[in-house]
Amino acid sequence: MQDCSALEVTAFFEEYTSSLQYVAADPATNRCAIIDPVLDFDEKSGATATHSADEILAFIEKRGLTVEWILDTHPHADHFSAADYLRRKTGAPTAIGARVVEVQKLWKEIYNWPDFPTDGSQWDKLFAEGESFLVGEIPAKVLFSPGHTLASITYVIGDAAFVHDTLFMPDSGTARADFPGGSAQQLWNSIQEILSLPDETRLFTGHDYQPGGREPRCQSTVAEQRAENIHISRCRTTEEFVRVRQARDKTLPMPRLILHALQVNMNGGRLPEPERNGRRYLKFPLNALRRDI
Predict the structure, then answer these.
(1) Do residues 39 and 48 make contact, with C-beta atoms less than 8 angstroms apart?
(2) For residues 89, 92, 95 and 101, what is the CA-based torsion angle, rounded to 10 degrees?
């Protein structure tokens, strides 16, 4: 049996959206998974680029790795997914949690997109809760982690868990839960399941907003999160956490890319099809997420 602790994790920090992307590799087989890759996008100019994804591809080529999986933890609200681009470059299958169909149904109505398929067929694989798979010879499994979104999942690969927005670094706390379909109650339950993993489990987050201007960080442990997370360590009950989380969420603006990103990411990272003039266009539902301005 392959030693689970042998999983090698390399993080790639995308500064514009403070996103963390990962290559998780089994050194015994040189096979790997790419987790939560970013497609570069500038909302001011409408320009897209593949610099972040190409950096990952260059690393994989240099290391002689074979990509087995391209994994998203959920349809992101703050950056575009490069899953489809990397699928076309590597031939590896894309995957996400099966509850992505619930997000698709919700946002299909918000975008008034009547012909949009809400069956998850935009990905090659929809993981069921508790489903197992392999990265090389290292066992992996899927935990459903709703709360931040309806479809959020955690990938547990060997002794590492990729939790994306569910938990940030301990000095940043936890994910917001006020997006359509979000729930602070569900978020607390998901966090408790993650924190029931062994104390030494390495936890890799999906964003780091560098509080106090410190350098970007990506890794903690279950024990560190339980003892030091500013939202978890201070809350002893579900009710306390929900109160703290909801109060915090009321102070937060919507992510600047949420309306840009969801129509791409619930479509597996595919940009809209070109129109007759050869250009692609994003669609904005006005007042769908209305807050006082």
Answers:
(1) yes
(2) 60
The dihedral through the CA atoms of 82, 65, 133, 152 has a sign that is negative
Residues 219-256 as b/e (b if ≥16 CB within 10 A, e otherwise) read ebbbeebbeebbbbeebeeeeebbebbeebeeeeeebe
Q: In order of start, what are the domains of the chain with their CATH numbers?
A: 4-265 (3.60.15.10)
Tokens of 258: 């949420």
Amino acid at 149: T
Cα–Cα distances in angstroms (integers) from residue 279 to residues 72, 86, 200, 275, 283, in the given order: 27, 22, 49, 6, 13
Question: pLDDT tens digit string along 145-196?
Answer: 999 999 999 999 999 999 999 999 999 999 999 988 899 999 999 999 999 9
Side chain identity at 7, as an amino acid letter?
A: L
Q: Are 175 and 205 in contact (CB under 8 A)?
A: no
The residue among 86, 99, 95 whose CA lies nearest residue 135 is 95
Tokens of 241: 């956490």
Q: Which of 143, 157, 128, 150 is nearest to 191 (CA)?
A: 143
| Number of residues in the chain | 293
Contacts of 213 by beta carbon, 8 Å cutoff, 6+ apart: none
Residue 160, helix vs strand vs coil? strand
The pLDDT tens digits for 24-80 are 999 999 999 999 999 999 999 999 999 999 999 999 999 999 999 999 999 999 999
